[in-house]
Write a structure and sequence with these properties.
It contains four helices and eight strands. The protein has 176 residues and is of the alpha+beta class.
Length: 176
Amino acid sequence: MLQGAHITLRARHEADIPVFQAELYDDVATRSRADSRPWRPVPPGSAQSPYVVAGPSDEAVPFSVVETASGELAGEALLWGIDTHNRNAHLGVALRPGHRGRGLAADVLRVLCHYGFPVLGLRRLQLETLADNTPMLRAAARAGFTVEGTLRRSAWVYGDFADQVILGLLAEEWQG
């Protein structure tokens, strides 16, 4: 397990999957903003759930986010698109509705950076978010990320195109 100031990242448990499915995936409008793939209905308990972990992978590392003080499941975090040759990866965070707005996302990003830089030996971490996702933009800035650019009208989001912001952090910039 990896500790932050307010959160713990741990392996995903089977009991986490139905919670993520109900609170993160089945909210179509929010899920459409968080994932570049189109939303499709997935029945509960399906092996097709995006939260099912088949086993260790060199390309992606999923975590469950636990609020340390309460022990409550707060959301999910992910390193994905891990490229061991170029030593970079992408980060993703999704918090359950009741855990948003508490400042947890910046803590999650800091812990993901700790995992990516000294544990995996990566050189660069990147995240993408919609330009109107002010909470994530703030969290990324607090975790040390720099806005590197905007992909204009690049994300199809629930019936319209939206701008996407790319943020990056290099190992030598990281304040671990």
